[in-house]
Amino acid sequence: MKSWFKFNYASALPFLALAMPASTSSLAADESKLFTEAYRDVPMPLEFRVEATPEGPVFADANGKTIYSWPQHKLRNGYSGEAKGSPACYDEVLTVTAGLMSPYPAGIKLPEIDSRLSCTDLWPPVLAEANAEEIGKWTVIERRDATLQWAYDEQPLYLSVRDQQPGDVQGGSRRRYGGDSPAMRVPVGPPSLLPPGFAIKSTSIGRMLTSDKNESVYSFEGDTATSSACESKCLANWRPVVAPALARDQGEWSLFERSPGVLQWAFRGKPLYTHLRDQSSWSLEGSDSSGWHNVFTQDAPSYPESFTQQASLAGNVLADANGKTIYRYNCGEDTADQLACDHPNDTQVYRLAMCGAGDAQKCLQHWPYLIAKDDEVSSNRTWRIVLIDPLTGRFAAPDQEGAIRVWSYRDRPVTTFGGDKQPGDVNGGGTGEWRGQRNGLKAFWLRDDYMNGIL
Amino acid sequence: MNTLQRLVSNLLVASALISGGVHADQSVLRNRAIAYVMTDLFWSVYQTPGAIQECPQGFNDGPREQFEQLFPYHQALTVEETQLRQEIETWHPTTDSDGFEFFQVEGGISWGVNLDGEVGLNDFVHPDGTPGIDNELYRAVGCIIGFRGPDGVEYIFQNKAIADERYNRMMIELTEVDDLENDDSVTVSVYRGLDRLLTDATGSKIVPGGTQRVDTRWGQKLIRKIDAKIVNSKLITEPIPDLIIPWQNLNVPSIQLIRDARFVLDLTAQGATGLLAGYADVDTWYYQLIRNDSTHHLSNGQISGISLYKALRRLADAHPSLDTGENTAISTALDIKMTQVFISHSPSQNAE
């Protein structure tokens, strides 16, 4: 470890260029968007590097492509993913369901067998040369075909064919996923640079700083790096995050003595607190108090300027210009390799079944794509305008007749729901298999006051 | 006051609280008001031992059983021909026959309320002998295991969610109360609360005396105000045209829409118990069920969404569509339990 703190500007720059919102003035207005997350410098083979992404710092190959692992995940009827040191993603094209979920049994023939891809078609392993030298947590494991594969912390490593540019994380996410979600692929990276007692959670609005007990961490506008305006009555609602007596300033993290012998942590020049009235983990409730803000190591890439936020019965959702809630389609197959089926390049059989009973026209009626206006341009690599063939759901060529320009999130087109009538309606949320987690649709939440940290 | 005097005093207060009625001058009424927070809510299902009376043909099959009957050789078939076919039928339901016989309640007794003021041939009789009970939802779900207490999957999940999830924190507040035993004019307000329920030291028993703030932000559209009366400690409200009940379990926030909803609750100083009755909007009811459960949890309760939707549409008995003339709502009653709570109307609970 070269230093306790290192803010990797070199890695951040490509991301900043990619994440530039449509209007640069909005970027200048909010300096926090310029930050990317610092990480602990760990020993690594020379052929790899660290790349800044919307999911925080990740390991990348020599071309800057994000590296993923596939951690083992308990499903309803067994496990999928990979145990440490045991690659399970190979070039075999699977033909039947695995029965890992419920209630449908194993052994049903998978759709579009003739054009179906294997696990390694979509997730090429990060192969190691015969003379590769292990270093730190980077080790080399042997696959069953005798090729060598890099592993980090013993988890075999892969690239995603969905990623096209450095900083892309179209293949997976660090966001929390539950037992009923597919066994996800997760970006792998160096540890975030945090003092003990803190943690970071990937959310739809950014990388949220929390305590290691999942309490949200806040800052107050009236504070400075060396003084706190929160005293006496204020302390009935806000608890300073205190540091051990031997703690020292490090990079973006500093300390000040708020009272004799009591050190309080500050991040980027703002003292940190938890909110005693928060009622759930990863809460945003404290930010309702004037001058108080949740703390993020980096914000999520800006959503398009034409989008709006709407209040629902359960919190804020992302909505289109007319206030209609925006939904994301999620899909993971019930197969041993848990391949996703939510991308325009994947089979559309599942999506068409759910959105329109197999009828593309009904899909367009029930779950219309969010059409980009003629004068709109892609905001960043996360929110991108793509061309879609509405009758197949697949990407369209630029000159293809009937193609439509639609907004996509990480290259998956987003939709609204025909059953929503008023701003804030989320009547489509949870539609589909496993409450929208495996073949269905979920609302795009920006604030969750009632779902225990679903962001 | 010595220890003995304090003990006697406490016993007298406790005795007063435990007794049924409470007068306005007693401490639980503050400024002529009392409030209750919901702790239990579930579709009212009249059950006899072994279900012999109401379900003589037995219980309905669920998705697993129907799948086995439809696709005994599923290995020869594709996902589209099996799994997705069933999911399409679930998420895009129709009234066409699915080929399965649906067992609806055959007994003549049901909990509920006479919603339309009439005594029809198809109406149930209340266990106390009152005729004209409207509860066609019971006819639809009464022979489905998942809707029956005490261990049906819906029954368990919903009551657990109410205790655990603030999203479901429904409250009523009675104001302008002169007498909690008899008062011919009180006002009932319906709110959602913001706070966790007060429990005893075990964390599982909800106790009276907690405090709830009113959710005027996310829950503004849930607020209702209605006239009511209290007769022999029973609260009877006027119908609410469109009561929205926040209804979430398994992290899918959804609602139930009850038209012409009314509360009929036995009141005490500690709580309120009784019925919430009205006409459930059929589509809202159905999609709440399948969005919160999806096919897996439906299977655990032997609930075929496909078959049940057809029954709901067939048995719907109110609010005909202006376009098709078909009824869009179904009579129902919910068993409801509430615990006394103090409501804080302070405008800014978070003021620093």
Architecture overview:
The complex is a heterodimer of chains A (455) and B (352). Chain A has 455 residues and is mainly beta. In chain A, strands 14, 15, 16 and 17 form a 4-stranded antiparallel beta sheet that branches. A 3-stranded antiparallel beta sheet of chain A has the order 6-7-8, with no helix packed on it. Chain A is globular. Helix content of chain A is 8%, strand content 25%. Chain A has helices spanning 9-18, 24-29, 119-122, 349-356, 360-366; strands spanning 49-53, 56-60, 68-69, 73-75, 78-80, 138-142, 148-152, 155-156, 186-187, 198-203, 206-211, 218-220, 238-240, 242-243, 253-259, 262-267, 270-271, 273-275, 292-294, 296-299, 308-312, 315-319, 327-331, 383-388, 404-409, 412-413, 431-433, 439-443. Chain A folds into 3 domains: 1-89 and 124-191, no CATH class; 198-299, no CATH class; 308-443, no CATH class. Residues 1-32 of chain A have low confidence and may be disordered. Chain B has one domain (26-344). In chain B, 23% of the residues lie in helices and 28% in strands. Chain B is built from 7 helices and 11 strands. Chain B is globular, with a radius of gyration of 22 Å. Mean pLDDT of chain B is 91; it is low at 6-22. The chains are: A mainly beta (455), B alpha+beta (352). At the A-B interface, helix 4 and strand 27 of A face helix 2, helix 3, strand 8 and helix 6 of B.
* Secondary-structure class of chain A: mainly beta
Q: What is the total number of structural domains of chain A? A: 3
Average pLDDT metric of chain A: 91
Strand runs of chain A, count: 28
Radius of gyration of chain A: 23 Å
Low-confidence stretches of chain A: 1-32
Unreliable stretches of chain B (pLDDT < 50, length at least 5) are: 6-22
Average pLDDT score of chain B: 91
| Number of structural units classed as domains of chain B | 1
Question: How much β-strand is present in the residues of chain B?
Answer: 25-35%
Largest sheet of chain A: 4 strands, antiparallel
What amount of the residues of chain A lies in strands? 25-35%
Number of strands of chain B: 11
The total count of helices of chain A amounts to 5
Shape of chain A: globular
Oligomeric assembly: heterodimer
What's the helix-strand series of chain B? HEHHHHEEEEEEEEHHEE
